[in-house]
Amino acid sequence: xxxxxxxxxxxxxxxxxxxxxxxxxxxxxxxxxxxxxxxxxxxxxxxxxxxxxxxxxxxxxxxxxxxxxxxxxxxxxxxxxxxxxxxxxxxxxxxxxxxxxxxxxxxxxxxxxxxxxxxxxxxxxxxxxxxxxxxxxxxxxxxxxxxxxxxxxxxxxxxxxxxxxxxxxxxxxxxxxxxxxxxxxxxxxxxxxxxxxxxxxxxxxxxxxxxxxxxxxxxxxxxxxxxxxxxxxxxxxxxxxxxxxxxxxxxxxxxxxxxxxxxxxxxxxxxxxxxxxxxxxxxxxxxxxxxx
Length: 292
What we know:
The structure is a single chain. Helices cover 72% and strands 8% of the residues. It folds into 2 domains: 2-47 and 156-291, no CATH class; 53-148, 2-Layer Sandwich (Alpha-Beta Plaits). Helix 1 crosses helix 8 (207-243) and helix 8 (207-243) runs antiparallel to helix 9 (250-281). The protein has a 4-stranded antiparallel β-sheet, sandwiched between helices. The chain contains 9 helices and 4 strands, in the order H-E-H-E-H-H-E-H-E-H-H-H-H. The protein is an alpha+beta fold.
């Protein structure tokens, strides 16, 4: 009978540990997914910003040497990602492909002007920066005018700010929810051992001696839960990379490693702190209150 009761007790104890590890690992996994979204949100916003270009309309009588010199000067600027020169003939070919017919036969001449498409780095695509750059470029003698879609540029910047703010709010809320779930899970685990804590106090064990094994065990389970969460994240990352192989760059891999480290630290620290306060709750409590 005693062996049977001991087996049931060990089974319940083991089940509570498994529940704790699984619960914490799933919460950390959700935090990790949000972290991956935040990491790639920046790259995605940069991609949309850098895909926008403004077009430099060149004068029709501009010499090829002057145009190439202007393009080289623009490429040397720290805020320019790349430039693309489109001659009159190339512009005519592109327009013919878009229209599906040769407009040159109809007009008898090529009315298009040579252009340079300029793609800026993401941090320089704000409207104020583009306006300043426009003033600088129009001072070149070969430049006729500068054209860019101001409405789309403003729309992208506004939406990026809104999405960033939304993700930050969601991140804070999810982190608070995660801490609450982990804390409640650990409190339930410690609650099942409240009589053991009381017994240890009755035989003269001090607070530090009682807390130590619980905290060490919590540190181990927190680290184990973090490893499980990281493993799930790596599996998810592998599946995503198979479908979107350009999603993760070298910089993102480094950020992902930092995210894994942050999850490990979060799992260990949150578990340890929650265990500390959960055990303290039952230290010095009157025996009658252990039944409530």
